[in-house]
Design a protein that fits this description.
It contains 9 helices and 46 strands. α4 crosses α5.
Length: 738
């Protein structure tokens, strides 16, 4: 591991006798790489000052931050100061607000601290954030509280390289679902009496239900599997600064010592509100106050939304008082709900009157056993737990759904009025959050960042954004460089935030005063959604040139590269009757594929077919293409297709045009015409989930060719396979995938 030193210089401005005099506080951050082990596997990671996460940077409101970022990597990097009001060129988004920090370079950030609260910093370059480039920011108020504090920075860790994670997501690989136990196969559907639910789901061309995309080996608290504050005693209160620094994980937060009092969100103070639990969206921060009731060891447990793992913080010392783990989600109940919400064209059905806002109704509750009552212990078990803990309230361990108070945005109220300027002109924008899980494309109004122009706004106007989430995923939408009001029914006291978690079928309204200049990013903070295109750039008209961005046109082209990245996939079958396989190179809208089949003799022959085309439509079910087909097979007599057209050639090479369309049940219909005048119509489907690891695929066409086979997935790269091909016969062997 590389070792780095952290230098902190305090330059006092004015009289040193003034304890509250503003200071210029200097930090030197050294970005390097290291190797870490969290689950028995070592993996390359990025470290700041030799640690993951980086050091907590602390300032006091009124100070000036002076931060030098030294890049010791062999690649460029960046640091974004999340949630901070600062000059545009200091925001830290490479090629948009700040120049990238090239390998070996040092970059100076300097900005005044004009706010207090809990924030964080992270890389805004590719997938570096997932590899460890993040840390906490704490801005103390001028008058500090006497309550002890602690930062709790939550994050997720994958043993897989983040670029590989992104590639798997775009190639519709279901290895993550297998690892998480969320495949929802037909066997599982029958076992849970949801066969009809599964059929309806596939009839509407949807994938299996899930609440998160990625499988993570570990979840971390301040870079550890668990953290602690053993010095706390009975009656002590502590202010915990919760930061969700994960790349794509929401966390449920619960405390075994009683109620949780929420006092701030995204750095902005709110009127204190008591709850039993809250969900912390990706990139959100919450300040909470909890009490240690007795001289025991109480657990603040942070559980991933998909419930595949937890991390947390132990408070106090003595006998452990753990939280009961959250039970596994009831995915088929969620699938049934999703079926009811989704129309055949892929849109959510708003005619049902189910539109909601501000998290006030979590439709995923149908999947929560602790809410529906399926996880409630028997009366005897409840009494035993009550006696064991001397009547101590375990804050939801044994509560039914009606007893659990869950925080939602409607409960947040600012302590002071947050009204925008009354006479300012209003610019209203409507954003529909759109997406396609099959191809992993995320967009706004069906356009990715690279497909949309900058949104021009004027200094002095109020910008109101009405967001409708027309996807089955929740999205934490983050606005750089501004606080916005969330219109949640609190009127003049609507809370201020920098991140809005918007759930499926929600319509939320936010608004902010346009008081800055330059370009500012607005995007989903799930890293893989942002990199796939879900974002926009707000651009102030008549802004002065940004010295960090000498060529704005060229720089914006660099921003657009992210969601235009190419993704490669390959699959090779090696079986007793020959080999078949596929190679694919694709991005948001375009795809190039080559398929082949090689037999063991002249009668089996060989064939290679390639397609290049573009996807159309919101759900990308339509794919017109051009291509070429090369085949050889020893023939004794002419082949005839269903249309009566003959082929008498042993060797054939043709070009063709065609059209693919995704039918209900996710069957691909393919019609093509080649340069010999031959027409072919084909139906096919890959990866029908028979059981957790068993997949079925088939193909049939008007050339009287057909195929059917099975693959049993052993690892992410290996499957045992067998299939019958009308030309090559029956075979068995293995299939390798990348």
């Amino acid at each position: 591991m590389k070792k780095f030193l952290l230098y902190i210089t305090l330059l006092v401005i004015g009289s040193q006798a003034m304890a509250q005099a503003p200071k210029t506080i200097r930090y030197d951050l050294y970005v390097g790489d290291t190797m870490v082990t969290y689950s028995g596997k070592m993996r390359h990671a990025l470290a700041i000052n030799g640690s993951i996460p980086g050091p907590t940077l602390e300032f006091t409101e009124g100070d000036t931050a002076l931060i030098y970022v030294h890049n010791t990597l062999k690649e460029e990097t960046s640091i974004h100061w999340h949630g901070i009001i600062l000059p545009n060129e200091q925001d830290g988004v490479s090629y948009l607000t700040t120049s990238p920090i090239k390998a070996g370079q040092t970059h100076e950030f300097k900005f005044p601290i004009v706010q207090h609260g809990t924030y964080w910093y992270h890389s805004h370059t590719m997938f570096q954030e997932q590899s460890g480039m993040y840390g906490a920011l704490v801005f103390h108020p001028r008058k500090k509280s006497d309550i002890p504090e602690k930062v709790l920075l939550l994050s997720d860790w994958t043993d897989m390289h983040p670029h590989q994670v992104n590639r798997y997501l775009h190639n519709a690989n279901d290895w993550f679902a297998i690892k998480k136990g969320t495949t929802q196969s037909y066997t599982e559907a029958i076992r849970q009496k949801h066969f009809g639910t599964k059929v309806t789901n596939e009839w509407k061309r949807m994938n299996a239900m899930d609440v998160s995309d990625v499988y993570y080996e570990k979840f971390l608290a301040n870079g550890r599997l668990s953290d602690s504050m053993p010095q706390l005693k009975a009656g002590d209160k502590v202010r915990l600064r919760i930061i969700n620094g994960s790349s794509s994980t929401y966390f449920w937060l619960r405390y075994s010592g009683g109620k949780i009092t929420v006092v701030a969100n995204d750095g902005a103070d709110v009127e204190p509100v008591e709850v039993d639990r809250l969900i912390v969206g990706v990139s959100e921060t919450y300040d909470i106050i909890v009490t240690v009731p007795k001289d025991m060891k109480y657990q603040l447990l942070a559980t991933a939304e998909d419930r595949t793992g937890s991390t947390g913080l132990w408070l106090g010392s003595g006998m452990e008082m753990p939280m009961k783990p959250l039970p596994k989600l009831k995915y088929f109940e969620g699938m049934k709900m999703m079926n009811d919400m989704m129309k055949m064209n892929g849109d959510l059905d708003t005619s049902t009157g189910m539109l909601m806002s501000n998290q006030t109704m979590d439709m995923n509750t149908v999947m929560y056993p602790e809410i529906t009552g399926d996880d409630k212990p028997s009366g005897k078990e409840e009494k035993m737990q009550h006696d064991e803990h001397a009547g101590h309230d375990m804050a939801g361990m044994n509560m039914g759904g009606g007893d659990i108070v869950t925080l939602n945005y409607g409960m947040l109220k600012a302590p002071e009025k947050t009204n925008l300027p009354a006479n300012a002109p209003v610019k209203e924008l409507k954003f529909e959050l759109t997406g396609n899980m099959n191809r992993y494309v995320w967009s706004i109004n069906n356009k990715t960042v690279s497909e949309a122009d900058k949104i021009l706004i004027k200094r002095g106007e109020n910008v109101r954004i009405i967001l409708f989430n027309n996807t089955m995923m929740r999205h934490p939408m983050h606005l750089h460089g501004h606080f916005f009001r969330v219109l949640n029914g609190q009127g003049d006291y609507s809370p201020l935030k920098t991140v809005l978690d918007i759930m499926p079928m929600e319509v939320d309204t936010i608004e902010f005063a346009a008081t800055e200049s330059g370009d500012w990013f607005f995007h989903c903070h799930i890293l893989y959604h942002m990199m796939s295109g879900m974002g926009r750039v707000f651009s102030y008209e008549d802004s002065p040139p940004n010295p960090q961005i000498p060529d704005p046109v060229k720089s914006f082209r660099m921003i657009k590269r992210d969601d235009r990245m190419l993704h490669f996939m390959g699959r090779v079958g090696l079986e007793s009757n020959g080999s078949d396989g596929e190679l694919m190179l694709a991005n948001t809208r375009y795809r190039l594929t080559t398929e082949w089949r090689v037999g063991l003799n002249d009668r089996h022959g060989y064939e290679s077919e390639s397609h290049f085309g573009r996807y159309f439509g919101k759900m990308q079910w339509l794919f017109p293409y051009i291509g070429w087909d090369v085949r050889y097979r020893k023939m004794d007599e002419a082949e005839k297709n269903m249309f009566g057209q003959k082929n008498t050639k042993d060797f054939r090479q043709v070009f063709h045009i065609g059209l693919q369309y995704t039918l209900p049940m996710q069957i691909i219909a393919d019609a093509s015409l080649d340069t010999d005048g031959k027409i072919r119509v084909q139906l096919m489907r890959e990866d029908v989930p028979i059981s957790k690891r068993l997949r079925f695929n088939f193909m049939v066409n008007t050339d009287y060719e057909y195929m059917a086979g099975f693959r049993y997935i052993v690892t992410k790269n290996l499957a045992i396979s067998t299939h019958y091909d009308s030309d090559m016969g029956l075979g068995a062997g293995i299939t390798l995938s990348y």
